[in-house]
């Protein structure tokens, strides 16, 4: 089913009409609308998990967890809206004695206007119709038009229906949330004059094409894309000595989780040569089966990606996972740091699915030369011991990642105030996160009122409201 | 003088080497380096004002004030760095009981890396080598490479020399600040792989070209451009009744200030038909002389811009300013709101220099139809009385501007915590400001440390430092 240009225009006009209502709605209303969405999705959990499992084959257990994460995320943003620090309320009182005399300025952040959200294949709830981009855009006070992912069309439609009914029942305006389908409709969406910003999670090629459309508009709009990441892991010899088997098991579990279809999958793992870690990983992965992949495209791309890696003369196959009846079987590959430094374009290409590449290094210099070839990533992980001097390695990892881990594995992204899901290009196109409370900042713009009569100020900028909200006055940050 | 590709590569390599030093420098060092720049520029005030006056002809008085504004701005950012809330420090403690168990996350903002700054013709200090973009980029912890404006080359070179000496004496690393000259060098700068973000103040055409270069990089970088703004003013009949002569004098002073070469110049003024306001403005402007414009290009563009406006059959000349020996003579034009609504492309084109266009409206509907044709602006001004119902007009202005004024005139931009100098396209390309404390956010990216041993955390994220800095812990905002 493809949305026509005429249908998109209708959705856009409705979104434009809804925008001032969302933007000026009191925090209590906006929070209630977000919670109504969460409650409705929770209530429909059995039904939507069944549809999602049929379309994505991710399994009911995982999908049930993802619904909980998604509704938790909507409720987190309801709390963010009520807490109010996202408004960045700032007042400078007038100062007639200053040179030149200073007017009164009152600053806040306000919604940018209707937002386009491009949903992802691998999280049919958490990065889809009611996922993080939608939740943060609505929380910021903007209507949303979602481009459905072709991997789960029925689920997208049903989720949008549930959302529309919940929003209407909760008193939100018509036009708050719409769904479009088809690649052409997506392209038209990001170029539509009503749309003021876009969020995207997906492939580098698809994201880059949409980024280019957003940037080439007569009025360019911000495009927040999460595009791809190989999530390097560095393990020291001391760490392998101390807990090699445990690390091997952790890695095997992480790169095969969700059949390797997480954007935070550890795709390359730097290990010292000659430590026996390869054998430990081989032992750990032997019993782990793969499974069906999300879409036909991913199903075709996975063996092609593995073939592209093994075509390199330096690459060997270390081990396979358990025989897998359908879909992708896990595979562990290995190469040398020197080869990676020379042929990063091939060897550091992200490959969606249950594959990871062990990269043997001979000392720090060899490791660092290869690390310098690593592009921006969502995460980087360092497994070291207290006795290791890791400062130079850590500096290289920090430069390349948005989140640096010192224990555990990068799959699993907590939705909290502190989270950052982003990183230097091509991890994301922006200086912002697509997960966690601060994701709201992407869909807000500053506005300042100079010498405004109190009755014409937005209510949150009046003195009465400021007393109840975090704000800065004459440079001093104050809590209610 | 044109910077060669080889010279740019040398500057870029030095900036890349300086970046980790700036990024990890303690707040006290970074603040000291900013204050050293301010002190050095203040100390050289006589010398640089003389050069600036020779190159820009803006007059010693105005230029002396601009030096003070520029050094005040550097000191403001030193204070921002010390105050520390710009770091957005956020900690979520580990929670083993959560489903799934939650790791410890510590988030901060950190410098993006070397920044390109394109300076403006009309503020040879405040938006030039040591202007707001440079100050905020350095404050964020990033080395800067400035593209000099061709309108004040000698001043740019001398300012860069003073800055380099001051930074060296204060102990900042080599490579902290460099200067390039020539259009080709500017284009190469924004495409240079070392550069991670760019700030720009200038024309829509020049800014758009650089924006397109930044967006078309293999790794796109954020481009923060301040490109153009007509800064609409709306005056109600009641306001003219109450204080028409005062408003006319204020307008005449504002649109001719700096020979009309401010990006916040009130370019279009909506006035009710038949109020006598045109005559009042004519009276007010008669005694005001113009003067030489900043560059040959602007000198040629001004009469061409005025001609383009008066070529429209609806446009009449209301009045001229005093005879002006050299450069541009102030001129007031008038047209009708209906013509503006029909031919916005012509009539709402920004014209740099001492010209303003009065737009007569017949009632609210006529006014609003024309206002809907106004594109994004830095400012919008509403002069009304308490008895006016301005809610619909205000909504239209808010949608189109970053700063809304209810008294005074938009020229004059206080450099404070609350200021916002930005707005919807084409005012700026971004959701950020180029003036005021929050301009620092443009040159920062988030980074999160997960389960990091305390000794490997950046010092500001350790518990000891958190106790002295504003931060959020487990969702709760806390002040030191």
Report the sheet with the most strands of chain A, covering strand number, pairing sense and barrel closure: 7 strands, mixed
Major sheet strand order of chain A:
10-11-12-9-8-13-14
In the CATH scheme, the class of the largest domain in chain A would be: Alpha Beta
Q: DSSP helix count of chain A?
A: 16
Oligomer: homodimer
What percent strand of chain A? 15-25%
Tell me, rounded to a whole number, the average pLDDT of chain A. Answer: 96
The number of strands of chain A is: 17
CATH architecture grouping of the largest domain in chain A: 3-Layer(aba) Sandwich
Helix % of chain A is 40-55%
User: What ranges of chain A have pLDDT less than 50 throughout 5 or more consecutive residues?
Assistant: none
Shape of chain A: globular
Largest interface: A-B, 74 and 74 residues
């Amino acid at each position: 089913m493809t949305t026509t240009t005429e249908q998109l225009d209708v959705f856009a006009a409705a979104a434009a009409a809804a925008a001032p209502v969302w933007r000026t709605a009191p925090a209590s209303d906006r929070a209630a609308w977000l919670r109504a969405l969460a409650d409705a999705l929770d209530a429909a959990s059995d039904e939507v998990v069944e549809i999602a499992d049929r379309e994505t084959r991710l399994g009911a257990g995982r999908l049930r967890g993802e619904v909980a994460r998604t509704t938790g995320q909507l409720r987190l943003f309801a709390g963010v809206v009520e807490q109010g620090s996202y408004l960045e309320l700032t007042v400078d009182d007038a100062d007639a004695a200053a040179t030149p005399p200073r007017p009164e300025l009152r600053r806040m952040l306000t919604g940018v206007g209707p937002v386009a959200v491009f949903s992802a294949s691998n999280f049919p709830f958490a990065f889809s119709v009611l996922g993080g981009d939608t939740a943060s855009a609505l929380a910021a006070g903007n209507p949303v038009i979602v481009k459905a992912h072709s991997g789960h069309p029925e689920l997208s439609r049903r989720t949008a229906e549930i959302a529309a009914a919940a929003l209407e029942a909760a008193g939100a305006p018509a036009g708050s949330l719409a769904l479009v389908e088809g690649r052409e409709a997506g392209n038209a969406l990001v170029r539509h004059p009503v749309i003021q910003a876009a969020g995207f999670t997906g492939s580098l090629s698809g994201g880059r094409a949409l980024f280019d459309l957003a940037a080439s508009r007569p009025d360019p709009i911000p495009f927040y894309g999460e595009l791809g990441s190989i999530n390097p892991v560095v393990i020291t010899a001391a760490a392998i000595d101390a807990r090699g088997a445990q690390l091997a098991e952790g890695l095997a579990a992480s790169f095969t989780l969700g059949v390797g279809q997480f954007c935070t999958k550890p795709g390359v793992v730097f290990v010292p040569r000659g430590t026996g870690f390869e054998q430990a990983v081989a032992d750990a992965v032997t019993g782990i089966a793969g499974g069906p992949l999300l879409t036909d495209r991913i199903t075709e791309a996975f063996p092609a990606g593995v073939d592209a890696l093994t075509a390199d003369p330096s690459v060997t196959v270390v081990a396979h996972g358990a025989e897998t009846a359908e879909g992708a079987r896990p595979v562990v590959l290995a190469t040398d740091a020197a080869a990676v430094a020379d042929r990063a374009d091939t060897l550091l290409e992200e490959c969606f699915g249950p594959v990871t590449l062990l990269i043997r290094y001979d000392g720090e210099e060899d490791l660092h030369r290869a690390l310098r070839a690593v592009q921006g990533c969502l995460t980087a992980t360092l497994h070291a011991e207290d006795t290791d001097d890791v400062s130079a390695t850590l500096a290289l990892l920090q430069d390349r990642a948005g989140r640096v881990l010192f224990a555990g594995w990068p799959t699993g992204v907590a939705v909290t105030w502190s989270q950052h899901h982003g990183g230097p290009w091509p991890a994301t196109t922006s200086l912002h996160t697509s997960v966690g409370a601060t994701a709201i900042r992407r869909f807000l713009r500053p506005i300042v009122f100079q010498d405004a009569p109190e009755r014409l100020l937005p209510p949150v900028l009046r003195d009465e409201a400021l007393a109840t909200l975090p704000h800065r006055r004459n440079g001093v940050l104050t809590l209610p």
